[in-house]
Amino acid sequence: MKTLRIRIETLDDVRSAVSRVLKSGNPEAEAGLSFASYEDMHHVLSPKRLAIVKAMTGRPPTSIREIARLVGRDFKGVHTDVTALVNAGVFDRGEKGIEFPYETIHVEFDIEAAA
Question: What is the pTM of this model?
Answer without folding.
Answer: 0.77
